[in-house]
Design brief:
Layout (H helix, E strand, L loop, with lengths): L3 E9 L4 E3 H18 L1 H5 L11 H8 L3 E3 L26 H17 L8 E5 L9 E2 L5 H14 L6 E7 L19 E9 L9 E10 L5 E2 L21 E2 L1 H22 L7 E6 L4 H12 L12 H4 L6 H8 L9 E8 L3 E9 L2
Helix pairs in contact: 6-7
Bound molecules: coenzyme A.
The site of coenzyme A (COA) has 21 residues, from helix 3 and helix 6.
Length: 357
């Protein structure tokens, strides 16, 4: 069986950046105006007053301080509360493609390859703008694509396959929902997959083993209404944007993922103590701390389980790869690491990696 490697990675984040403080200021102004406009109904008990958000809560509950977004414009306007992006004609490249290409160029560069060396591209994300060879599995879209691409290369269907993850999560983020308005950021990641014996990039990692999982849950829902939120009367309705029961997700996903990772390690006869690093999905710092503690048997250091939430927020399926991209080059030849995505679906994708050089 051909051994497969991630021979290069890339990351693109849009230049616009929103701090918790800016986000909360806009949200609280929206709340003030909403409560003022419905004062009579609230006073008469026909409607609940909306509650304010806070930077302290967001950081403590999620670990997020900032997020990069495709369009700050509109998101911080209490009367608009969604990104304002100019429409692009069909002759122009889609924004998701533009982001994905920027990440893909970096991945090729780090692998020492040219575009003509690539035999196929899988675009994997939680939301799409155009058709291609697409893969969608919520927050695990990227890892599902990596397993498919690895199988393709192993079967000889292509010598090198690019997996690209343009995640424009702010398109389906409900900025008027106190429990979720802070979670998402936008980013694109890319990985080049090749036979391990050809992967000579300095930060090439052999994919020792992959496992995927999906379990039905209604606790994170996306009815993809963000493609169709043109009526101002309904544009913030639940079916137009992503919704979740955050507490249930937290309670159910933590044990599911820890068990899944430990089972996978056991099947490969790898003891958790052999792992030098965990690159976990980046949705919530407290979930990651608990999962890493269950897997490693002790509270992880930032070195053992790096967190990129503070700067990027939840970038959906790109998250674990952002952590991998930013925190893998310092490890040594032969070191083992465990990448795991998890979330909407529920889905989870587990990849055990060994540094090649
Ligand atoms: N600002 C200030 N206070 C807030 C708030 C906000 N934006 N949102 C909620 N609160 C309040 C609540 O009203 C509650 O107040 P109370 O104790 O007076 O009733 C308190 O904070 C705690 O709320 P709770 O919902 O229990 O918070 P939590 O610690 O469970 O965190 C989530 C909520 C959503 C951040 C957390 O459950 C979570 O991240 N879950 C995982 C979801 C996820 O990441 N999914 C992505 C895919 S994995």
């Amino acid at each position: 069986m051909t051994r497969i490697a991630i021979s290069g990675t890339g990351l693109y984040v849009p230049p616009d950046r929103i701090t918790n403080v800016e986000l909360v200021e806009a949200y609280n102004e929206y709340v003030r105006a909403h409560n003022a406009a419905h004062e009579a109904d609230i006073d008469a008990g026909r409607m609940h007053a909306q509650l304010k958000s806070s930077d302290e809560f967001i950081y403590k509950a999620s670990g997020i301080r900032n997020r990069h977004v495709v369009a700050k414009n509109g998101m911080l306007d209490p009367e608009i509360m969604c990104p304002r992006l100019p429409e692009r004609p069909n002759g122009e490249i889609a924004l998701s493609a533009e982001m994905g290409i920027a990440a893909a160029k970096q991945a090729l560069e780090s692998a020492g390859r040219r575009p003509q060396d690539v035999d196929g591209v899988i675009c994997a994300a939680s939301i799409f703008q155009r058709f291609g060879y697409d893969m969608m599995a919520g927050c695990s879209s990227a890892t599902f694509a990596l397993q498919s691409a690895a199988d393709m290369v192993a079967q000889g269907h292509g010598r090198a396959i690019l997996c690209i993850n343009p995640e424009i999560n702010t398109m389906h983020l409900n900025l008027r929902d106190r429990e979720t308005h802070f979670i998402f950021g936008d980013a694109a990641t890319a990985c080049l997959l090749e036979p391990a014996q050809a992967a000579d990039g300095a930060n090439a990692w052999e994919m020792v083993s992959t496992r995927l999982k999906s379990v039905y849950s209604n606790n994170i829902r996306n009815n993809f209404g963000s493609m169709n939120r043109f009526d101002p009367e309904t544009q913030f309705n639940d079916d137009k944007l992503i919704t979740q029961s955050g507490r249930k997700v937290f309670k159910e996903v933590v044990p599911m993922v820890a068990e899944f990772m430990l089972e996978h390690l056991g099947q490969q006869n790898i003891a958790p103590s052999q792992l030098k690093r965990l690159w976990l999905h980046q949705a919530n710092i407290n979930m990651n701390r608990l999962i890493a503690t269950k897997v490693l048997g002790h509270e992880p250091t930032r070195h053992e389980a790096p967190n990129v939430l503070e700067e990027y927020g939840n970038t959906s399926s790109a998250g674990s790869l952002v952590a991998f991209h930013e925190h893998s080059a310092d490890l040594a030849k032969g070191d083992l690491g465990h990448l795991c995505s998890f979330g909407a679906g529920y889905t989870a994708g587990s990849i055990i990696l060994r540094k090649l050089h």
